[in-house]
Task: structure prediction
Amino acid sequence: MATHAGNEGAVYIGANQIAEVKGYSFDITRDVTEDTVMGDDFKTYKGTLGDATGSIDCFWDETDTSGQIALTPSTTEVTLNLYPEGNTTADSYYTCTAIITGLSISGANDGMVEASFSFQATGGISLAVVA
Result:
């Protein structure tokens, strides 16, 4: 079994690495519908539609035009590649077509300016391997 440190990860929009990423997360869920019938002792269900959402947290970098600046909330779809273990040959990663649904920027006198981007996958998230 393999484990990985969080600092091995990377996030890309298409082929461009997003600068200053502190972390990311995504959730994959599946809706279910009940199909219990008379005579069943317990409820039964069928899996239906899947969904995936997530977020990317960064230190704000306004010079990252092909990364952070390209993650503007809009109707435009982008390709996101989320690399939990790095981006070298044989590493596994998740890829999806996504719509950026939110941008939140925050700063404090005693800290860094930070940005958080939220996304909605359209068509699901797939597990792939770096060639």
Q: What stands out?
A: Residues 6-129 form a domain with the Pnp Oxidase; Chain A fold (CATH 2.30.110.20). The chain has a mean pLDDT of 95. DSSP finds no helices and seven strands in the chain.
